[in-house]
Amino acid sequence: MFDKRVLKRAKISIFSLITFSALTFLIHYGVIYRDSLQTVANKEALEVLQAHTHKNGEGLRSTLTHTHIPLRSMQEEKEEVGNGDHIVLVAPFNVTEEERIAWFRGKIHEFKILKSDKLSGQFHARVMRFFSQECESQFFMTWISPASSFGAKELMSIESVFKVHPKACLVILSRTLDSIHGSMILKRLLDEGFKVQAVTPDLSFLLKDTPAEAWFYELRKGNKDPGEIPLFQNLSNLIRLVVLYKYGGIYLDTDFIVLKPLTGLRNSIGAQSMDVSNKHWTRLNNAVLIFDMNHPLLLRFINEFVLTFDGNRWGHNGPYLVSRVVERLGKRPGFNFTILSPMAFYPADWNKISGLFRKPETRGESKWVEAKLAQLSGDTYGVHLWNRQSSQLKIEEGSVMARLISDHCVICNSVGKTVDC
User: Fold this and answer.
1) Cα–Cα distance, 270 to 341 (Å, whole number)
2) β-strands 138-142, 169-173: how paired?
3) What range(s) does the Alpha 1,4-glycosyltransferase domain occupy (predicted)?
4) Tell me: the pLDDT tens digits for 101-113?
């Protein structure tokens, strides 16, 4: 009996020892494996950037000298993707202004776009270094959403820029795309030799010595009402104005398809709608802006943003803002800018954009598609897709959009079947 009990205890001890050893090995292996994955991922991302080269006046030079992608852990990448400002940081509805300001003060440290840190502090130097390449034109876009939501439609927009302007330089002002994840998203464009770079914006620098400097200071202190509309959307309206004011160039929304060169335009803004009876514009839009550096009209726009900011009204700080300012100016001399007709940038208004995505089902609809394409080949520089209305639409086979994509992409995906935007 005694021998059986001893033997039983010995077996239990041996089993426990084996189990403990196995668990220790698995935990240790898991840590090593996780760290190895992270190291490999970071290494691969850097190798992608280091391997990519492009031609310039001095021969071959590594794109890495212009990108300066920050190293971030996989955990930081995961948090970045999952906690975009437009998902989490939306002010509560149906509250008083005081309650909304109190909410904003409690959340202000989570608004990454308001941050000034080492990365954003490199903004100006990185932009100037990037534009020191042989750029035939300077383009800007903004992206303040998570990198994971930068999808096929946005890439399609960028492709159209380089299809028409192969030697252009494009800066995307974005903290989320200025990352390993973002560099992988833009990889296929870099592999083609196109000059595109995401750069974390420094709003303190951009707004310095402009009418918006004091406004931004008060915003960061939590003394401004952000409004019910996500703040990042209204800040995008401001960023496009100040980046053109400080650098000059062409600003495009990421839902704009370029059809013909924009470089022949100067100090131009497009009308969204027009009174057909008198040919006078009724509303302008800020999805496309083409201006010289330090243009006085941009300064007027920035000043209007500060004086009339309202975060509760859609379009008030964007299309309606530029419309108000230009309407007040009238034909006052000294501003030297051009207003283009709706056909230039907005050939399909927001409530008719879905027609460009639909497959023609009848002979009459097929003729309409051909007529629309012929019309777009005339005075149209590009098509604004009105993302709020078209984001859930599919590009159907034979539609106007399918035809445009096949003609204006540089890394063409198949559009012979219905695809998601």
Assistant:
1) 6
2) parallel
3) 291-414
4) 999 999 999 998 9
